[in-house]
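Lab notebook, bench 4. Still working through the backlog of constructs that have no structural model yet. Next entry is a single chain of 162 residues. Request: give me the structure tokens for it.
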Amino acid sequence: MEWISPVSTAIGALIGVGSTLVVDRARWRRERTDRAQEQRLHLYADYSASLSRMRTALNECAQEEAQGEDRAQRVRALFLSPGGYELRHQLAILAPQAVIEASRTAFIILRETRDCLLAGADAHSTDYRELEDSFDNAIAELRALMRRDLGAPDSIPGQAGY
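Model written out:
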């Protein structure tokens, strides 16, 4: 009977250590998931802001009277300055496939808008306005997918738009 006490102590220690390891592992997974979600949140916000800055810059160029090589250089420079290309590469690593595809669609529309302006279009051109409408739809879809990925509600009560 002298072996019962050490064996029960050893079993109790194993159960205690095992349960501590299980709890630590669960906490580590939860923290890892939270960090990844926060990282995607910041990346999504940065990418959305970058697309917005690109669109605003292109819109300003579309409303300017300038033409020729100066305008072309300005359009190209303003298109690149917000860092959309770099952020797209980060999205390709961290985001789910649906978000990657939607981000690519929105970016391509902005690139087509840039090319449209380089071809001589302005803010009143039909092609330019159609691209603007396409971008509105694409960015709405992208944001919906981003929100879904982050677990945000589909709509915020009392907020129809912004």
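Notes after review: Residues 40-150 form one domain. The first helix runs from residue 4 to 63. Flag for follow-up if needed.
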